[in-house]
User: Fold AraC family transcriptional regulator from Cohnella hashimotonis.
Amino acid sequence: MPQSEIMALPGHAERDGLLPYNGPAFVDKLAELASLIERNTGSDGIFDTTIPSLRLIRSSKSSLPVHTIYEPAVVIVARGTKIVMLGGDSFTYGPSAHFVVSVDLPVTSRLLQASPESPYLCMRLGLDPAQVLEVIKGADLAGEDARELKRGAFVDRTSPELLDAAVRLVKLLDTPREISYLAPLVVREMYFRLLSGGQGGAFKQIALAGSGTSRIAGVIARIKQDFAKTLHIDELARMAHMGPSSLHRYFKEMTTLSPLQYQKRIRLQEARRLLLTEAVDAADAAYRVGYESPSQFSREYARLFGLPPISDIRKLREETEQGIG
Assistant:
């Protein structure tokens, strides 16, 4: 396996990371997962499947940086390499590594290794905190240490057992009649493998009521629901059972942004979506996402995306027509 596909932990050089499993059996399982994803996609894109919360992703070209919101999920890569940037942290992962997101995070991502001959292939399993909690209780893991997760994401080495379960889950797409019964069992097994892995203590925080992760997740859900409205920090703090200063500290540790900065990021990304997909001008998009000043909107838009709204949208459309990105 190429050295460049060794996973890198945030803030550390590759020498501080974990070497991939590279035995023949592990490599064969990666190849099997890649083949299954290829067969169930066939073209570039993000594909929903008949298994709830499972998506398959294929891309045949490396990409320019993309601003997006990552929802709670575990991503297991079969081929290719990706980097995700969250504030000052970066997470690089490829085959032998998986990426876990515990709360909705505004990130910048970029595909580093992908080509028509060797496309980027991965599976994304959305996380259900209630089901994770069931596994914690059923496997008698509740008493084990749960390490507080500072950031809302982490990279960990994919064990042979987790990879095997991932292959069996995707393989169920070939036998639709078995999905309703077997898929939930395999998903529970994957949760168990994640809880038993090197970052199991952090993964546990996703499900535990009252943990910093779960409280910040609730605040994020409220901000996303009411992103166009005025944000009241005191109200959010009461909802999280925290003081305003504690909320600010925990929120920034997990997302690298303050609650107000997070709301601004959501507003700007939604405005960009509106400009790309609907017949609106910049001023209309600004008002629809909660800005009262179009000039302030344009300044903050350019600060995040590098260009004023109209120039940015024109550039994005040109890149799409040329097959870039």
